[in-house]
Amino acid sequence: MTRKQKRLAVIGGGVGFLLAAVLLVMFAFSQSVAYFYVPGDLEKTEIAPGTRIRLGGLVENGSVKRGEGKTVSFVVTDTIGTVPVTYSGILPDLFREGQGVVTEGAFDPAGKLFVADTVLAKHDETYMPKDVADRLKAQGVSLGGKETIR
Amino acid sequence: MIVEFGHYALVLALATSILQSLLPVIGAWRGERALMQSGTTAAIASFCLLALSFGALTYAHVTSDFSVVNVWENSHSMIPLLYKYSGVWGNHEGSMLLWLLILMFFSALVAVFGRNLPDTLRANVLGVQAWVATAFALFILLTSNPFARIIPAPGEGRDLNPVLQDVGLAIHPPLLYLGYVGFSVCFSFAVAALIDGRIDAAWARWVRPWTLAAWSFLTAGIAMGSYWAYYELGWGGWWFWDPVENASFMPWLAGTALLHSALVMEKREALKIWTVLLAILTFSLSLLGTFLVRSGVLTSVHAFATDPTRGVFILIILMLFIGGALSLFAFRAVRLKAGGLFAPISREGALVYNNLILTTATATVLTGTLYPLALEAMTGAKISVGPPFFNITFGLLMLPLLVAVPFGPLLAWKRGDLLGAAQRLFAAIGAGLIVAMGVFYARYGGPVMAAAGIGLGIYMIGGAVTDIVLRSGSGKLPLATAWARLKGLPRSSFGTALAHAGVGVTLIGIVAVTAYETETIVEMKPGMTAEAGGFTLRFDGMREGQGPNYTEEAAHFDILRGGVVVDDFWSSKRIYTARRMPTTEAGIRTFGFSQLYVSLGDPAPNGAMVIRIWWKPFILCIWLGTVLMMIGGAVSLSDRRLRVGVPKRAKAKLAMGAAE
Prior knowledge:
The complex is a heterodimer.
Chain A: H1 3-32, E1 33-37, H2 41-44, E2 53-59, E3 65-66, E4 71-77, E5 82-88, E6 100-107, E7 114-120, H3 130-138
Parallel strand pairs in A: 1-2, 5-7
Antiparallel strand pairs in A: 2-4, 2-6, 3-4, 4-5, 6-7
Chain B: H1 2-30, H2 33-62, H3 69-74, H4 81-86, H5 92-113, H6 119-143, H7 167-196, H8 201-232, H9 243-268, H10 272-294, H11 308-332, H12 347-379, E1 383-385, H13 387-404, H14 418-424, H15 426-442, H16 448-472, H17 479-488, H18 491-516, E2 518-524, E3 529-532, E4 535-546, E5 550-561, E6 564-576, E7 581-585, E8 587-591, E9 594-603, E10 609-616, H19 620-637, H20 640-644
Antiparallel strand pairs in B: 2-10, 3-4, 4-5, 5-6, 6-7, 8-9, 9-10
Helix pairs in contact in B: 1-2, 1-6, 2-5, 2-6, 5-6, 5-7, 6-7, 6-11, 7-8, 7-9, 7-10, 8-9, 8-19, 9-10, 9-12, 10-11, 12-13, 15-16, 16-17, 16-18, 18-19
């Protein structure tokens, strides 16, 4: 190979690697990104069963039921809509009725029950998950208490 | 009174910083030595003043002076003394003050140990450091004053966030900041070189120790944070690809690239322009991280308080410095002459390959971190980009780099021999293959990729050993000669080998935990047993306890092997009294490099406890590897070359170099 060809090969290799990286990023986005919804959205938009989404809202008072062993079911509400959720596992420390929660998972084949594999409550008591608070505020839901969001 | 004194010292530090940001730069421009010298004095003065200011805030925390808002919001008279100290930086205002303190600490170090730098370079470096310091001092004074008072003073504080009440937190932020902010020195060197319009191999030799030091601290800080999240949050996870983690990981990746490209520049005068750009980008990512974490655009344990004016202020700082430095780069980089040529297969080529992959990987992490924010700003749609995204992109991109790591040090400068290097790596490759096959057969039907990953880790460790063996000539030369050569090897060779082996060890830990960890969730009543990792766990019962500022319910477990009790431990749930906030204190027992990790759930209706048990094989390797990397950095930093290679002045007493 001449010097010029060598240089071209090196630059080509570099550009090829970058292209591969871009394609990989696009592929990964198409595979693994989850959109965020609150129950009220789901009255308007249909989510196909099996599509991963994040569902956020408040845990409805009196809705938490512990089933067989580690299975827990509860209802997520934004006061406009409600969605029943089941989850298998240990709930985070800050999971409580009447408090904000974000769950990740997909609807079951019937499209009614939301099967969560992750429940997040990575907030402390002074604020709610930001996504939930923003959306609830936008829908005019009172967050209760004095200023809950700092 | 002491608190007002601290506030005043902070204002004075701002004043000396403003002087430091103007005088030396003007002096360098007009060639006046006296003005250039003033930078040194100003840098040391700023640091001392800020240390006093920080000391005053610490005093307020330790004496629980609740008339200071910052203390009232983040402390409590009952918390242990250690957390009164760590509470100083366990909140927004205090942690920004620590950030600034460390920045000024590095400026003072440059002032003290940079006496053998050319006058204009040192003056400009100190000037640029002071620009950053001035911006952040203004930020603290205008938006985040830690010394604000509250009248009347409350009788009791609101307590430090319970998850932050941990030894890990006491150490994690200072280490992380030493790394994060340490890269400011590289940034200042790069900008100063662009202002000067001159750059050579000596520049790289001055920058490298700073990069090494910052990189080692950042490695320690990230590892500490990861271990803290692992044992404190009670989910058994050690890395979540949380945007806040990415914020510290991106400067680390870019810094790793910088470490390697500065090497090429020092030895071969090549890649000058690229190295300067990388130095700017690395600190820009540190600034971006500060913005992401401090502005409140993200919700996490790190976002102590969200206040839009703070976000806007940091964003302005961010744009000013990143935009300014990159514009300067665009105008002046053409003046820097490109240096030495090399063949694609060579040490330089291998380091370029390293840089290509590391910067691409940084870019993908950046994309995954910022895309949700950008999308929300533009369309209002909220998405989450989670671990699957990063595992696919980052994991696959890093793979070709990991395979190549052992080859790098074996290739010669200018023109290398790939086949020769592969032959010399024969033993390492063989060891990797054998281990991979062994793991595959031991776990017959287990994932092939996991076995391959562990083999890859072994091969990397083997490669690092091979490098040292070849350099000392062991095996070919008589033992005594080889030993003498081994002792005579530059310390940086050992540093390289240790750090590269560390990557291999971490990789083994990651792969083993990801592929072979077991998780069991069981309902247990006292006396019942469960199996994990070849052990039997027996639940004995619950006990109520009382700590200084919390109450807890603790479960006691015995660990049995073959019917014999080998160990026992507690796992508990705490309620912190002041905030009524529950936390999980996982019970963890170590067996070799593996750990048994047990956290408590809620009581089930029938009186049993829900208990989550993990067996985490080889998990300690993850952090052991980072410790090796850190030691590698430190060993490399102690290399003679970095201290005495700099041209000496006639005055011998000024000799000792920038490395210390």
